[in-house]
Amino acid sequence: MNAVRRGGLGLLAWVSGIVFFLPVAWMALTSFHSEQDAATNPPSFTAPLTLDGYREFFGTGGGASPWPALVNSAVASVASTLFVLLLALPAAYALSIRPVRKWTDVLFFFLSTKMLPVVAGLLPIYLFAKNAGMLDNIWLLVILYTSMNLPIAVWMMQSFLAEVPVAIIEAARVDGARLPTILARVVAPVALPGIAATALICFIFSWNELLFARVLTGVVAETAPVFLTGFITSQGLFLAKVCAASLVVSLPVLAAGFAAQDKLVQGLSLGAVK
Amino acid sequence: MTATTTAPVAAPSAQAPRTPSPRLRAWATRAPLLPALVFMIVVTQLPFVATVVISFFDWNALYPKARRFTGFDNYHQVLTDADLRHSVWTTVLLTATVVLVSLVLGLALALLLDRRFRGRGVVRTLLIAPFLVVPVAAALLWKHVLYNPEYGLLNGLLHYVGGPQPDWISDTPLLAVEASLVWQWTPFMMLILLAGLQSRDQQQIEAARVDGASDWQIFRHLTLPHLRRYLELGALLGSVYIVQNFDAVFTITSGGLGTANLPYTVYQSFYQAHENGLASAAGVLVVIGSIVIATFALRVVSSLFREEVSRP
C-alpha cells in the first residue's frame, strides 16, 4: 500500500514536471515548424521539421539581423560581470576575512539598494544620459548593470569568503606568507566555485534585463531582449520565427542555469540558503 | 590595497613599535570596501534623490520652459487620478496573487521532489526551465504561442476535449499576466523551499516517526515550522522582484485592459506622455511601497543571517 502511494507521488511529480516544461518544449517544437504548420488549430505535433524559423530570425529571409543585438547583450553582460567582480571581491574581503567594524550594517546597505525599484532612478538617469550624449551607448548599460548586480555579488561572495577558515589564514601568515600569496593559495581555492557562481548569476540578470535597455538604447546599443520586443505586435504571423528568436535569446541563460542549479538557488537567495 | 598588506590583523603587543596608528589601520581595513560603496551611492542613491526633487515639479518634457515647483500636486494627482490609482491597486493585486500562488505551488512541488523517486534529477531540471527562459521571451511565448485564440496551444488542447475557446488576453487580461508570472516564479519558490526541506534535521524526524507521529503531524509540527523562514524568504524576494515587474505587463498586454502596474505607468508617463514630474511622483510611491516590503524583508534575511553567524 505504501509502495503504491510512493509510486503515485513519483508519478505526480513527473506529471507536474512535464506540465511546467510543456510550454518550453512546445516553443522548441514550434520553432522547427514552417509558419503554416505552426499556425494550425488544432496544433500539429507531427508536422515536418524545418530550419526556416531560424533562417528568418537570423535575417537571411529578410528583416533586421539579430546579431548586433546579441553581440551588445554579450558585451553588456560580460563587461558588467567583470566590473562587478572587480568591485565586489575587495568589498567582500573587507566584509568577511578581515571584517571592518559595523560590517553587517554595510552589508545591509548593499542589500537595501537592491530593494530600490529600477523606476525610482530611471528618469534622472535618462535625463543625464541625454544631456551627456550617452543615450544609445552600451557602456551606460554596463555601468547600470554593474550597479544592479553589485549588491547581490557582495552578499554572495561575502558568504563564500566567510567559509574560508580563519585558522588556515593565520597559519599561512605565521609561516610568513604575504597577502597576495594568501589570497592565491588559501582563499582562492575555497572561494573560486562561489566566485564562478556569482559571475554566472550576474551574467544571467544582465542578459535578461529589459527596462533600462528599452529606455536608454535605440538602434546602436539595442540588446537581445529589446530586439525581442519587436515581436510584441506580430499577431501570430511569424510564430515559428518568434519561437526561434525566444529560444536563441534564452539559450545562454538556459545552459548556464542548468549547469549550476544549486549555486543558482544559493545566489538568488543572497547566500541565505545553503 | 597595498596598505592592507602591511597592516597586521590583530597587532600583538610585541610588534607595537612597527604597528601603524589605529586610525591608519582602520582606513586600511576599510579601503577595499570603498570603491564598491562609492559606486553604489553614485549610481543608485543620487538618481533617487533627483527623482524625489523632480517629483515636486510640474514638468512636461515637451514644454521645458513651463517647468515650475508645485509641491505635493503630483502626489495628489497620482493618488486621486482614477487610472493611476487603478495601477496602484493592480500592482498590489498582481504582486500578492503571483507570490502567494507560486509559493503554494512551489511548496507542493518541493514536497514532491524531496522524496526519492525514479528520475528525480530529470524532473527537477524540467521544473527549473521556466525560470531560465529570458523574461521577455517567456512573455512572448505566453502571448503568441499559448494564449493566441486561434492557434495557441491552450485553445488547441481545449479543442481536443471540446471545451470553450476563450480569447485569454482580452477576456481575462490580468489573470493572463499573472499565470505567466506564476509559471516563471514557481520554480524559484520550489528551489528555495527544497533547499529548506533538505536542511531539516533527519534524526528529529526519525525520532518523531519512532514515537508514532503520522506524516501529517510531522509536516504540521516539524516541517512547517522549520520551513517558515524559507517561506518568508521566498515570499519577500519574490515580492521585491514582482512588484517591479515590467517585462510581462509590457509584452503581454502593453499595460492595456487594466493591467498597467506602477512600473509600467512610470515608464509610460515619462517615456510616452513626457510627464517628468508625475512619473517621478509615481516612482517615489513605488519606492515607499517597496520600503514597506523591504523593511520586513531585511528583518527576515537578517534573522536568517544571524542564525548562520552564531552557528558554531
From TrEMBL, chain A:
One Pfam family this sequence matches: BPD_transp_1
Q: Which UniProt keywords apply?
A: Cell membrane, Membrane, Transmembrane, Transmembrane helix, Transport
How is the protein disposed in the membrane? Multi-pass membrane protein
Residue intervals passing through the bilayer = 7-29, 74-95, 107-126, 138-161, 182-206, 212-231, 238-260
Q: Thylakoid among the record's keywords?
A: no
Q: Where in the cell is it found?
A: Cell membrane
Q: Which InterPro entries match?
A: BP-dep_ABC_trans_perm, MetI-like, MetI-like_sf
Q: What is its main location?
A: membrane
Q: Does the keyword Plastid apply?
A: no
Domain (ABC transmembrane type-1): give its ranges: 70-260
Q: Which family does it belong to?
A: Belongs to the binding-protein-dependent transport system permease family.
Protein name (database record): Mannitol ABC transporter permease
Species, as recorded: Streptomyces asoensis
UniProtKB/TrEMBL annotation, chain B:
| Top-level division of the source organism's lineage | Bacteria
Sorted alphabetically, the keyword list is:
Cell membrane, Membrane, Transmembrane, Transmembrane helix, Transport
**What SUPFAM superfamilies is this protein classified in?**
MetI-like (SSF161098)
Q: Which residues form the ABC transmembrane type-1 domain?
A: 88-297
| Compositionally biased intervals (Low complexity) | 1-17
The entry's localization annotation reads: Cell membrane
Q: According to the UniProt record, where is the region Disordered?
A: 1-21
**Belongs to which family?**
Belongs to the binding-protein-dependent transport system permease family.
Official protein name in the record? Sugar ABC transporter permease
Task: Give the species.
Answer: Streptomyces asoensis
What lineage does the source organism belong to? Bacteria, Bacillati, Actinomycetota, Actinomycetes, Kitasatosporales
